[in-house]
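Q&A FORM
Asked by: J.P.
Topic: structure of histidine kinase

PROVIDED:
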Amino acid sequence: MKQRNFLAARIDQWSREHPRLLDLIMAGSMWLVFGLSSALAGLPAFLVATAAILPLAVRRRFPATVLAWSAAAFAVQLVVVPIPLPADIAQAIVVYTVAAHVASVPIRLLALGAALTGSVLAGFRWSTPPAYEANVFKNAVFLGILFVLVWVIGNLVRGRQANMSALRAASARLEEGRLQHERFVAQRQRVAAAREIHDIVAHCLTVVIVQADGAEYAAEHARPWERGDAGTVFATIGRTARSALAEVRGVIEVLRDADGPDEAHGARLGIAELRQLVDSVRATGLAVEVEAEPSVFDDVPPAIRFTVLRVVREALTNVLKHAGPHATAHVVVARTPGGIMVRAEDDGVGSRRADATASPPGYGLDGMRERLRAMGGVLEAGPRSGRGFVVDATIPVAALSPATP
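REPLIED BY: S.T.
REPLY: Here is the structure written out as C-alpha cells.
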C-alpha cells in the first residue's frame, strides 16, 4: 500500500510538472478508445468524435477557443448523428477545463449555459417514443445535473489552485522577510562589532601613544634616563596592547553568540572593572578622580553595565586625545530614581583646542549616542563653562530590567 501511495505521488508530481504533455497523452488515449469506437456509428460519427476529442490536447492553453470549437462540434453532431456517442465525454471535460482554468466569470458562466442548452437539445434529439416527453425531461435533467456537477468541481479546483498560489506567494514573502531579517541582524552585528572594535582600538592606541610620547620625551630630555621608568612605560604599553588584542578577539568570538557582546561580557562587569579601567588611564599620567558607590551596579542588567563602562572608557579616551597636557578628569557613576547617570568632565582645552596638532574628529561621541539610543538612554556632550569638556549620559534601568515584558 505504501508503494502505491508513493507511485501515486510521483504520478501526481509528474502531471503537475508536465501539464501539456499530459493533455496530449489524454487526448490521444481518448481518441483511441472513444474516437475509434464512435466509428461504429458511421463515418460522420467518427469525424465528429475526432473533432471533439483532438482539441483536448490544447485545452489548458486555449480553453475559451476549445469551448467554442466543442460547442460547434456538438451542434454538428446533433444535426448529422441521431444518437449519443462515447466521444461526448469530451464535452464534460471541456466544461470542467473552462471552470477550472479560466479566471473570467462571464466565460465560465457561458460554458455552463452552453452545457445546459446542449443538455436540453440533446434531450429532444436523443429521446424516442412512446414516452417522448418524459424521455426528453429525464435526459435533459440527467445531462444538466451532470454538467452542473462537472462545472462546480471545476470551480472548486480553480479555487483550490488560487488558494495554493496565494499560499505559495505568502510563503515566498515570509521567506524573503526571514532572509531580510537575517541580513538585518547580521548587519546589526557587524555594526556592533565595528563599534566595539573602534572603541577598544581607539582607547588602547591612545594609551599607547601617550606612553610612547612620554617615553620619547624622557629619552631626549631627561637626565639621567631611569630604567625603572622605562620599564613602567613599556609594561603599560604591553599590557594595554595585550588587553586590546584580547578584547578584539572577544568581540569577534561573541558574534556567534545570539546574546551579542553586551550579554556575553556584561554579566561579569562591575565596580572592579570600572576601577581597573580608570587605573589603566591613570598609568598614562592623566589624573582621574572617580565617584562610584560599590553597589552602583547591583540589580543592573548586563547590557547596561557594559554600556556604562564603554561610555566611561570613550569619555576618558577623548580626554587623553583632546584635553591637552596637565588636564584632570572627574568621573561620576551614580544611581538615579530612573536608572544610571554617568558624568565625565575635564578641565583641559576640550573642543576649543585649535592648534595644528589637534587630533581630527572621530566617531566616539556618535558611537556613544547610538549605544545609548539602543538602551533608551540619552547622551549630552559639550564644552564646560570656562575650560574643559563634559559628557553626561543617562540610561534607564527599567528599559532593560528582567522584570520588563
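FOLLOW-UP: DSSP finds twelve helices and five strands in the chain.
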